[in-house]
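Prompt: For my understanding, could you write out one protein's sequence and backbone structure tokens?
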Amino acid sequence: MQTNDMLQPAEVALLYQAHHSWLRSWLRSRVGCSEQAADLAQDTFVRLLRARQVSPLKEPRAYLSSIARGLMIDQFRRRALERAFQESLAQLPEADVPSEEDRLLILDTLARLDQALHQLKPRARQAFLLAQLDGLSIVRIAQRLNVSRATIERDLAKALGACYRLRYADA
């Protein structure tokens, strides 16, 4: 084994040669589009290059399909978010529609926020959304989720912490 625990580029190149065609076929059968499958396969190997995986892989196809599955889910969530954003823009008066540059910034922020919130436990995510989107108080959220006020306060603190880290991650 290498002194460094990451897969080396040469090892990834061998995996690419051995499994790229299989991965593209596997993805094509799931997404139904050759171009999208090719993009996801490439993204999978890029992610593998950045991964902290100990080499060598014992089950490379299982590992590659796991990465690809996560990328498909991310892509599905991003597209759903984009559709919802476009639908909300359609509701705005013409004068309030943001510029294309602002739209991209907003959409990127929403995608990063969505990713940060999906790292939380479901109850914390739900509590945050009830507070931020529905404007419910801590007491009402606790009643709705059938937990204590202190539990909701902790959940909201975790969610706000995730948002804070997101905001300052690029600073």
Summary: Residues 60-90 form the longest helix (31 residues). The chain has two domains: 9-82, 98-169. The chain has a mean pLDDT of 88. Helices lie at 9-31, 34-50, 60-90, 100-117, 122-132, 138-145, 149-169.
